[in-house]
Write a structure and sequence with these properties.
The structure is a single chain. The chain has about 240 residues and is an alpha/beta fold. It has two domains: about 1-15 and about 25-80 and about 155-235, P-loop containing nucleotide triphosphate hydrolases (Rossmann fold); about 90-155, no CATH class. The chain contains nine helices and ten strands. The protein has helices at about 45-50, 75-80, 95-105, 110-120, 125, 140-150, 170-185, 220-225, 225-235, and strands at about 5-15, 20-30, 35, 60-65, 65-70, 80-85, 155-160, 190-195, 205-210, 210-220. The strands form two sheets. The chain has a six-stranded mixed β-sheet, sandwiched between helices. It has a four-stranded antiparallel β-sheet with strand order 2-1-4-5, with helices on one face. The longest helix has 16 residues, at about 170-185. It is globular, with a radius of gyration of 18 Å. Mean pLDDT is about 90; it is low at about 235-240. The structure holds adenosine-5'-triphosphate (ATP).
């Protein structure tokens, strides 16, 4: 059996003297779509940044595809097949093409041109606008550029921080559909969100509360845990299903 795409064991993290994550332990199986839910300040962004090597850990360990990466810098973690889309996700002053090129910097020029064509086949709406600044697009289109930029590196594990941020509900559904397609193509997903609409594409759910794992398990178990649902859906800022 393939090793998990991601294993986190007893992970902690801090901002300066303030600890914000404690004893985070969970795995993302190869082929899973794992949703990290949590209210504002629960620690979602810090967790993702720590996993991809952009924020220092305070104890614990992280493995990617069965390989310990505790001493591996972010750019080498990317080489293992991990792509990270932050909330911003793109460089707005650069053109769509330039954003895609940045996503595929490790590729040779010819491979990169071929990969741009492959990625554009998945995002045909971007093909006619390649020369335009990414910042001139709508919020939803910018997210698509962010996802397309990640796909340039042909990742096995796509980690996304709040892809719904700033998007209207209809556009959120488009993003969810696109992520569902990518998942069906075999890409493992780890998505941090406050928007519970993303549950529909999740196989597994992690709930973070105050920097700790409140729940970790299959989506069904999350949906059948009434106490957790009540506590969670009652939190201010969460959208109803
Ligand atoms: N740059 C920073 N400097 C200091 N503390 C920070 C910084 N970024 C986050 N924190 C703190 O870390 C904790 C977790 O924040 P984090 O952004 O990881 O949560 P989050 O769940 O992603 O929240 P949101 O959904 O609002 O983005 C919070 O207490 C926050 O104040």
């Amino acid at each position: 059996m393939a090793p998990p795409a991601l294993t986190i064991d007893g992970l902690g993290a801090a901002w300066g003297p303030v600890q914000v994550l404690w004893d985070i332990t969970f795995s993302v199986e190869d082929g899973a779509a794992t949703l990290v839910l949590g209210a504002n300040g629960a620690g979602k962004s810090t967790l993702l940044a720590t996993l991809v090597g952009l924020h220092e850990t305070r104890g614990g360990s992280v493995s990617l595809f069965g390989e310990s990466v505790d001493r591996v810098p972010a750019h080498r973690r990317a080489r293992l097949g991990v792509a990270f889309m932050s909330e911003q996700g793109i460089f707005p002053s650069l053109s769509i093409r330039e954003n895609l090129v940045l996503g595929g910097l490790r590729l040779r020029q010819r491979e990169r041109a071929a990969r741009i064509d492959e990625v554009l086949a998945m995002f045909p709406e971007l093909a006619d606008r390649l020369g335009e600044p990414a910042g001139s697009l709508s919020g939803g289109q910018r997210k698509m550029v962010g996802i397309a930029k990640c796909l340039m590196a042909a990742p096995r594990l796509l980690i996304m921080d709040e892809p719904s941020a700033g998007l209207a509900p209809r556009i959120v559904n488009e993003v969810i559909d696109r992520l569902r397609d990518l998942h069906a193509q075999g890409i493992t997903l780890l998505v941090a969100e406050q928007n519970v609409s993303f549950l529909e594409l999740a196989t597994d759910v992690i709930v973070l509360e105050g920097g700790r794992v409140r729940f970790s398990g299959p989506r069904d178990a999350f949906e059948h845990d009434n106490q957790l649902r009540e506590a969670f859906f009652g939190l201010e800022g969460l959208q109803e299903l």
